[in-house]
């Protein structure tokens, strides 16, 4: 039988005087080739005693225990790098937060430490996958993800928005304990926030001048949402990579954009013409008004002067009516006759008057023609 000893005694099935397979002085391998566990343990103990100085078994064991305790205590030292922050856990519960440098915590399993990198800027892409992502790895090109990028605007148009979110760890304990998957959390919050901001605006300003404003609004709303989660994440930047109409209607949209550009150009030209003509008309109106005011002032002054002169003549007339009347008659006759062509004929010169050629009148007619 396989349990027979070397003496060939078949009456004892164990082959070791009834002590069982692992008892008695003979504990070496049996005939079947199976090792004796007690012998292996004994050999290991003998090797350890040879390696440890001293002859006493108790002192050797104490030395081994002291060395193990020493190594266990030294295992509590750890180093926090300059771009990291240490978070000490005691039996899985947050205990302390340590700064960069050499630190110490109670050895495992009492305390453990996590050192997340708090200065590394992480990036999450929404609506696209770059060469560094799994879905586009190997292609070397950016892969569009329409289920993330297609969004509805406030005027019920569809716009294709690809953007990236850059974030860092602000609070390491909150980051480690309050959220389970930081990347997916940031991505979900970013997509939800962008859809909310896009849904509050029309498509035209989204595609043109309102891009930077939308980025700031998304950043502020994302930070507010993550703070409400106590995620310990800080959003550093939101960058819109592409804002276009859907690919199926982009040609028609470009035609509409061209028509709007023509409309805007015509409006600007009309405004330019109005800005040029209106000031000219206003200047002419001011000039006419000032000329009228000057004419009015001149006329009033002349009338005042005539009235004053008439009053002065009237005073003289009251003093000497005949003389004044005669003088006025002569002055009036002089003023009237000075502007007329005159021919004076002496009545006493005879009845025959020599005809004359009116050369002065012919000259005036030529000048008039």
Helices and strands, with pairings:
Layout: H1 37-51, H2 57-74, E1 77-80, E2 86-90, E3 93-98, E4 101-104, E5 111-114, E6 122-126, E7 128-129, E8 143-144, H3 146-149, E9 150-152, E10 158-169, H4 172-177, H5 182-199, H6 203-207, H7 211-229, E11 233-244, H8 250-319, H9 321-337, H10 359-368
Antiparallel strand pairs: 1-4, 2-3, 2-5, 6-10, 7-8, 9-10, 10-11
Helix pairs in contact: 5-7, 8-9
Concise account of the structure shown:
By secondary structure, the chain is of the alpha+beta class.
Describe this protein's structure:
The chain has 4 domains: 37-74, no CATH class; 77-114, no CATH class; 122-245, Tetrahydropterin Synthase, Chain A (2-Layer Sandwich); 248-316. It is 49% helix and 16% strand. The chain is built from 10 helices and 11 strands. It has helices at residues 37-51, 57-74, 146-149, 172-177, 182-199, 203-207, 211-229, 250-319, 321-337, 359-368; strands at 77-80, 86-90, 93-98, 101-104, 111-114, 122-126, 128-129, 143-144, 150-152, 158-169, 233-244. α5 (182-199) packs across α7 (211-229) and α8 (250-319) packs across α9. It is rod-shaped, with a radius of gyration of 58 Å.
């Amino acid at each position: 039988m396989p349990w027979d000893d070397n003496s060939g005694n078949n009456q004892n099935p164990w082959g070791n005087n009834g002590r069982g397979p692992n008892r008695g002085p003979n504990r070496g391998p049996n005939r079947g080739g199976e090792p004796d566990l007690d012998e292996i343990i004994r050999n290991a103990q003998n090797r350890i005693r040879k390696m440890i100085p001293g002859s006493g078994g108790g002192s050797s064991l104490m030395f081994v225990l002291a060395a193990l305790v020493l190594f266990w205590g030294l295992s509590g030292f750890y180093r926090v790098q300059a771009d990291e922050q240490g978070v000490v856990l005691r039996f899985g519960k947050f205990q302390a937060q340590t700064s960069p440098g050499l630190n110490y915590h109670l050895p495992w399993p009492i305390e453990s430490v996590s050192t997340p990198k708090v200065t590394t800027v992480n990036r999450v892409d929404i609506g696209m996958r770059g060469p560094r992502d799994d879905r586009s790895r190997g292609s070397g090109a950016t892969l569009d993800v329409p289920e993330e990028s297609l969004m509805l605007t406030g005027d019920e148009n569809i716009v294709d928005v690809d953007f990236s979110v850059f974030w860092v760890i602000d609070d390491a304990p909150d980051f480690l304990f309050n959220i389970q998957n930081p990347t997916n959390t940031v991505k979900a919050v970013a997509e939800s926030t962008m859809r909310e901001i896009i849904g509050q605006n029309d498509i035209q300003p989204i595609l043109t001048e309102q891009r930077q404003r939308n980025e700031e609004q998304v950043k502020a709303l994302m930070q507010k949402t993550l703070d409400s989660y106590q995620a310990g994440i800080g959003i550093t930047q939101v960058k819109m990579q592409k804002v276009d109409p859907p690919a199926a209607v982009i040609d028609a949209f470009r035609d509409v954009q061209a028509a709007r550009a023509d409309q805007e150009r015509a409006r600007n030209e009309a405004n330019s013409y109005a800005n040029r003509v209106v000031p000219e008309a206003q200047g002419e109106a001011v000039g006419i008004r000032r000329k009228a005011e000057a004419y009015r002032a001149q006329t009033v002054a002349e009338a005042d002067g005539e009235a004053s002169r008439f009053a002065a003549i009237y005073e003289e007339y009251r003093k000497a009516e005949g003389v004044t009347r005669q003088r006025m008659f002569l002055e009036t006759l002089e003023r009237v006759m000075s502007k007329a062509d005159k021919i004076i004929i002496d009545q006493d010169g005879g009845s025959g008057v020599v005809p004359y050629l009116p050369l002065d009148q012919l000259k005036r007619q030529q000048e008039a023609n």
